């Protein structure tokens, strides 16, 4: 079965610093999704990547999917306390279209020190 | 995009009682919804796929008689945790598919504590 490995498991950075979170799959990804979750709350959609080599940016967050579609990275530039939370990568389990049935990594807990 | 409303956001119940969690799609007709469970420091794990008008499909290891799913309309799916035990304490969250090429939409989640 497909698994998603996220690294690091947790991260503490000083405000203003850049950081990267990685998500690696054991199989080809049919859509890679990045979500942010605050403890005990729902998921906030960040970005969706579907094509090999795709890169998307929103505000200070950039996500990339490698050409082989087995690894993705999430990069935050000039981190702020508002970026703190748990970042989850999720992947579709079948090809094409929207993916409601997702598998997730265990998450990366990000803390930003002011 | 679709808005998903989940209720309640948190619930505390006594061991042996049943708890119902509702997942509503507010502006999207959903023939399929998904129920996930998340234990502390663990990933979200798919429990079951809720199908409107037919039986839910459960993932391996999830007891269908314990986690009853009803999807009677295109906008509502319910998950009932029957005879709850402390080990059922977890964060339950529902989702539904958006249109082709879009992300899944998640409810706010329900934190269940069984005492």
Explain how this protein is built:
- The complex is a heterodimer of chains A (114) and B (115).
- Chain A contains no helices and eleven strands.
- Chain A has strands at 4-7, 10-14, 19-25, 32-37, 43-49, 55-58, 61-65, 71-76, 85-92, 102-104, 108-113.
- Chain A is globular and about 40 Å long.
- Chain A starts with a strand and ends with a strand.
- In chain A, 36% of the residues are buried.
- The mean pLDDT of chain A is 89.
- Chain B is built from no helices and eleven strands.
- In chain B, strands 2, 4, 5, 6, 9, 10 and 11 form a seven-stranded mixed beta sheet that branches. Chain B has a four-stranded antiparallel beta sheet with strand order 1-3-8-7, with no helix packed on it.
- Chain B is globular, with a radius of gyration of 13 Å.
- The model of chain B has no long low-confidence stretch (mean pLDDT 90).
- The A-B interface holds A 4, 33, 35, 40-43, 45, 48, 50, 88, 90, 96-107 and B 6, 10, 32-34, 41-46, 49, 91, 93, 95-109, 111.
Rounded to the nearest angstrom, the radius of gyration of chain B is 13 Å
Uncertain spans of chain B: none
Question: What is the overall number of helices of chain B?
Answer: 0
Helix count of chain A equals 0
N-to-C span of chain B: 37 Å
The CA-CA distance between the termini of chain A, in Å, is 41 Å
Helical fraction of chain B equals under 10%
Can you count the beta strands of chain B? 11
Reported for the largest beta sheet of chain A, the result is: 6 strands, mixed
Q: What is the average of the pLDDT values of chain A? A: 89
Tell me the series of helices and strands of chain A, N- to C-terminal. Answer: EEEEEEEEEEE
The helix-and-strand class of chain B reads: mainly beta
Q: What oligomeric state is this?
A: heterodimer
- The average pLDDT score of chain B comes to 90
Poorly predicted sequence stretches spanning 5 or more consecutive residues of chain A: none
Biggest sheet of chain B: strands, sense, closure? 7 strands, mixed
Proportion of residues in β-strands of chain A: over 45%
Shape of chain A: globular
């Amino acid at each position: 079965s497909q698994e998603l490995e996220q690294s690091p498991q947790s991260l503490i950075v000083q405000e203003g610093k850049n950081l990267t979170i990685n998500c690696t799959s054991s199989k080809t990804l049919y859509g890679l999704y990045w979500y942010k979750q605050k403890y005990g709350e729902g998921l906030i959609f960040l970005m969706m990547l579907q094509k090999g080599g795709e890169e998307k940016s929103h505000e200070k967050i950039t996500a990339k999917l490698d050409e082989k579609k087995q690894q993705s990275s999430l990069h935050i530039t000039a981190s702020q306390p508002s970026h703190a939370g748990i970042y989850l990568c999720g992947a579709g389990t079948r090809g094409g279209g929207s993916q409601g049935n997702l598998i997730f990594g265990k998450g990366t807990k990000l803390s930003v020190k002011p | 995009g679709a808005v998903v409303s989940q209720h309640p956001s948190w619930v505390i119940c006594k061991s042996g009682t049943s708890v119902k969690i509702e997942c509503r799609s507010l502006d999207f007709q959903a023939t399929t919804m998904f129920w996930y469970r998340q234990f502390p420091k663990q990933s979200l794990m798919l429990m079951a796929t809720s199908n409107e008008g037919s039986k839910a499909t459960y993932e391996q290891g999830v007891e269908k008689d314990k986690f009853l799913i009803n999807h009677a309309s295109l906008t509502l799916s319910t998950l009932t945790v029957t005879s709850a035990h402390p080990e059922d304490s977890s964060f339950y969250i529902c989702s539904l598919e958006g249109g082709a090429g879009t992300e899944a939409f998640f409810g706010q989640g329900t934190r269940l504590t069984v005492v």
